[in-house]
Amino acid sequence: MPENSGNPASDRFSGVALAVASMLSVLAMAHHPSSFGTGLGGWVHAIMMVVVLVNFAGFIQFAGRWGLGRFSVRAGVVFYGAAVLANLLAALINGFVVEAAHANGANADVLRLCWELNQALAYGGVFATSISFAIWGVDLIVTQRRRRILGAAALTAGLVPAALLWSGVMDMHVAGAFVVYAIQAAFGVLAGAELMRARPQD
After folding, report:
1. What is the pLDDT of residues 178-202, one digit of tens each?
2. Residue 63, domain member (yes or no)
3. Total domain count for the chain?
4. Over the stretch 133-153, which tens digit does the pLDDT of each residue have?
5. Is residue 134 part of a domain?
6. pTM reported for the whole predicted model
7. Alpha-carbon span 175 to 42, nearest angstrom
8. Cβ neighbours for 124, distance < 8 A, ≥ 6 positions apart
Protein backbone atom coordinates (compact mmCIF):
# COMPACT_ATOMS: atom_id res chain seq x y z
CA MET A 1 0.00 0.00 0.00
CA PRO A 2 2.15 2.80 -1.33
CA GLU A 3 1.05 5.89 0.58
CA ASN A 4 2.40 4.70 3.93
CA SER A 5 5.44 2.44 4.16
CA GLY A 6 4.36 1.46 7.66
CA ASN A 7 6.14 -0.39 10.43
CA PRO A 8 6.38 -4.09 9.53
CA ALA A 9 6.47 -5.29 13.14
CA SER A 10 3.47 -3.13 14.07
CA ASP A 11 1.63 -4.24 10.95
CA ARG A 12 2.21 -7.90 11.74
CA PHE A 13 1.08 -7.50 15.35
CA SER A 14 -1.99 -5.53 14.25
CA GLY A 15 -2.75 -8.13 11.60
CA VAL A 16 -2.60 -11.00 14.08
CA ALA A 17 -4.77 -9.05 16.54
CA LEU A 18 -7.34 -8.20 13.85
CA ALA A 19 -7.53 -11.75 12.50
CA VAL A 20 -7.76 -13.36 15.94
CA ALA A 21 -10.33 -10.84 17.19
CA SER A 22 -12.43 -11.38 14.07
CA MET A 23 -12.44 -15.14 14.64
CA LEU A 24 -13.22 -14.66 18.33
CA SER A 25 -16.23 -12.53 17.41
CA VAL A 26 -17.74 -15.51 15.60
CA LEU A 27 -16.92 -17.82 18.52
CA ALA A 28 -18.52 -15.39 20.97
CA MET A 29 -21.68 -15.14 18.84
CA ALA A 30 -21.88 -18.93 18.76
CA HIS A 31 -22.18 -18.83 22.56
CA HIS A 32 -24.62 -15.91 22.63
CA PRO A 33 -27.42 -16.77 25.10
CA SER A 34 -30.98 -16.72 23.80
CA SER A 35 -32.64 -16.26 27.20
CA PHE A 36 -32.15 -14.49 30.53
CA GLY A 37 -30.39 -15.87 33.57
CA THR A 38 -28.00 -18.25 31.83
CA GLY A 39 -24.96 -16.70 33.51
CA LEU A 40 -23.27 -16.30 30.13
CA GLY A 41 -24.78 -13.00 28.99
CA GLY A 42 -22.39 -10.68 30.79
CA TRP A 43 -19.29 -12.68 29.92
CA VAL A 44 -20.18 -13.12 26.25
CA HIS A 45 -21.00 -9.44 25.78
CA ALA A 46 -17.90 -8.30 27.68
CA ILE A 47 -15.75 -10.43 25.37
CA MET A 48 -17.58 -9.05 22.35
CA MET A 49 -16.97 -5.47 23.51
CA VAL A 50 -13.23 -6.12 23.83
CA VAL A 51 -13.21 -7.80 20.42
CA VAL A 52 -14.98 -4.81 18.84
CA LEU A 53 -12.32 -2.43 20.18
CA VAL A 54 -9.42 -4.65 19.08
CA ASN A 55 -10.98 -4.88 15.62
CA PHE A 56 -11.24 -1.09 15.51
CA ALA A 57 -7.55 -0.70 16.33
CA GLY A 58 -6.68 -3.29 13.69
CA PHE A 59 -8.76 -1.65 10.99
CA ILE A 60 -7.23 1.75 11.76
CA GLN A 61 -3.81 0.19 11.13
CA PHE A 62 -5.16 -1.48 7.99
CA ALA A 63 -6.60 1.77 6.64
CA GLY A 64 -3.44 3.65 7.54
CA ARG A 65 -1.44 1.41 5.25
CA TRP A 66 -2.84 3.17 2.21
CA GLY A 67 -3.26 6.67 3.52
CA LEU A 68 -5.43 8.18 6.25
CA GLY A 69 -4.78 11.52 4.59
CA ARG A 70 -7.19 10.58 1.80
CA PHE A 71 -10.89 11.35 2.25
CA SER A 72 -12.21 7.96 1.15
CA VAL A 73 -9.97 6.10 3.59
CA ARG A 74 -10.84 8.47 6.45
CA ALA A 75 -14.54 8.21 5.63
CA GLY A 76 -14.31 4.44 5.96
CA VAL A 77 -12.68 4.81 9.37
CA VAL A 78 -15.35 7.28 10.51
CA PHE A 79 -18.20 4.96 9.50
CA TYR A 80 -16.45 2.03 11.15
CA GLY A 81 -16.04 4.13 14.28
CA ALA A 82 -19.78 4.83 14.27
CA ALA A 83 -20.37 1.08 14.00
CA VAL A 84 -18.06 0.48 16.95
CA LEU A 85 -20.05 2.91 19.11
CA ALA A 86 -23.35 1.31 18.09
CA ASN A 87 -22.06 -2.20 18.75
CA LEU A 88 -20.65 -1.28 22.15
CA LEU A 89 -23.95 0.26 23.21
CA ALA A 90 -25.92 -2.72 21.89
CA ALA A 91 -23.70 -5.14 23.83
CA LEU A 92 -23.93 -2.99 26.96
CA ILE A 93 -27.73 -2.99 26.82
CA ASN A 94 -28.20 -6.66 25.99
CA GLY A 95 -25.44 -8.00 28.18
CA PHE A 96 -25.77 -5.86 31.28
CA VAL A 97 -28.77 -3.49 31.33
CA VAL A 98 -31.31 -6.14 30.34
CA GLU A 99 -29.86 -8.73 32.72
CA ALA A 100 -29.95 -6.27 35.62
CA ALA A 101 -33.45 -5.07 34.74
CA HIS A 102 -34.73 -8.63 34.54
CA ALA A 103 -33.07 -9.60 37.82
CA ASN A 104 -34.71 -6.61 39.52
CA GLY A 105 -38.18 -7.46 38.28
CA ALA A 106 -38.55 -4.89 35.51
CA ASN A 107 -41.89 -5.09 33.73
CA ALA A 108 -42.36 -6.24 30.15
CA ASP A 109 -42.52 -2.69 28.77
CA VAL A 110 -39.05 -1.84 30.12
CA LEU A 111 -37.58 -5.07 28.77
CA ARG A 112 -39.25 -4.43 25.40
CA LEU A 113 -37.76 -0.94 25.26
CA CYS A 114 -34.32 -2.37 25.99
CA TRP A 115 -34.80 -4.93 23.22
CA GLU A 116 -35.85 -2.30 20.68
CA LEU A 117 -32.86 -0.13 21.59
CA ASN A 118 -30.56 -3.12 21.23
CA GLN A 119 -31.98 -3.99 17.83
CA ALA A 120 -31.81 -0.42 16.54
CA LEU A 121 -28.17 -0.18 17.58
CA ALA A 122 -27.33 -3.62 16.18
CA TYR A 123 -28.88 -2.77 12.81
CA GLY A 124 -27.15 0.61 12.81
CA GLY A 125 -23.83 -1.05 13.56
CA VAL A 126 -24.19 -3.47 10.66
CA PHE A 127 -25.17 -0.77 8.17
CA ALA A 128 -22.33 1.53 9.30
CA THR A 129 -19.86 -1.34 8.96
CA SER A 130 -21.28 -2.13 5.53
CA ILE A 131 -20.76 1.44 4.37
CA SER A 132 -17.22 1.41 5.74
CA PHE A 133 -16.29 -1.86 4.01
CA ALA A 134 -17.94 -0.76 0.76
CA ILE A 135 -15.98 2.51 0.73
CA TRP A 136 -12.71 0.69 1.39
CA GLY A 137 -13.59 -1.98 -1.16
CA VAL A 138 -14.21 0.49 -3.96
CA ASP A 139 -11.07 2.43 -3.02
CA LEU A 140 -8.92 -0.71 -3.09
CA ILE A 141 -10.36 -1.83 -6.43
CA VAL A 142 -9.82 1.58 -8.02
CA THR A 143 -6.47 2.61 -6.55
CA GLN A 144 -4.69 -0.61 -5.52
CA ARG A 145 -4.29 -2.84 -8.55
CA ARG A 146 -2.50 -5.57 -6.60
CA ARG A 147 -5.29 -5.67 -4.03
CA ARG A 148 -8.37 -5.79 -6.19
CA ILE A 149 -9.33 -9.21 -4.85
CA LEU A 150 -9.11 -7.85 -1.31
CA GLY A 151 -11.18 -4.88 -2.44
CA ALA A 152 -13.80 -7.20 -3.91
CA ALA A 153 -13.90 -9.10 -0.61
CA ALA A 154 -14.40 -5.84 1.30
CA LEU A 155 -17.18 -4.79 -1.07
CA THR A 156 -18.87 -8.18 -0.70
CA ALA A 157 -18.58 -8.09 3.10
CA GLY A 158 -20.15 -4.65 2.99
CA LEU A 159 -23.00 -5.23 0.56
CA VAL A 160 -24.15 -8.76 1.43
CA PRO A 161 -25.00 -8.22 5.14
CA ALA A 162 -26.74 -4.93 4.34
CA ALA A 163 -28.74 -6.57 1.56
CA LEU A 164 -29.74 -9.50 3.80
CA LEU A 165 -31.06 -7.15 6.47
CA TRP A 166 -32.62 -4.59 4.13
CA SER A 167 -34.51 -7.29 2.22
CA GLY A 168 -35.74 -8.96 5.40
CA VAL A 169 -34.05 -12.27 4.55
CA MET A 170 -32.15 -12.00 7.83
CA ASP A 171 -32.81 -10.16 11.08
CA MET A 172 -30.56 -9.33 14.02
CA HIS A 173 -31.87 -12.04 16.31
CA VAL A 174 -29.21 -14.53 17.41
CA ALA A 175 -29.17 -16.74 14.30
CA GLY A 176 -29.29 -13.87 11.81
CA ALA A 177 -26.71 -11.86 13.73
CA PHE A 178 -24.37 -14.86 13.68
CA VAL A 179 -24.50 -15.04 9.88
CA VAL A 180 -24.10 -11.28 9.43
CA TYR A 181 -21.18 -11.01 11.85
CA ALA A 182 -19.51 -14.09 10.36
CA ILE A 183 -19.50 -12.46 6.91
CA GLN A 184 -18.02 -9.28 8.34
CA ALA A 185 -15.50 -11.26 10.39
CA ALA A 186 -14.32 -13.08 7.27
CA PHE A 187 -13.15 -9.78 5.84
CA GLY A 188 -11.50 -8.95 9.17
CA VAL A 189 -9.45 -12.13 8.85
CA LEU A 190 -8.46 -11.23 5.27
CA ALA A 191 -7.53 -7.69 6.30
CA GLY A 192 -5.47 -9.09 9.16
CA ALA A 193 -3.69 -11.46 6.79
CA GLU A 194 -2.92 -8.53 4.48
CA LEU A 195 -1.33 -6.65 7.37
CA MET A 196 0.69 -9.70 8.39
CA ARG A 197 2.23 -10.00 4.93
CA ALA A 198 2.72 -6.26 4.38
CA ARG A 199 6.23 -5.08 3.52
CA PRO A 200 7.63 -1.55 3.82
CA GLN A 201 7.58 -1.08 0.06
CA ASP A 202 3.92 -2.16 -0.31
Report:
1. 999 999 999 999 999 999 987 665 5
2. yes
3. 1
4. 999 999 999 998 888 999 999
5. yes
6. 0.90
7. 19
8. 82, 83, 86
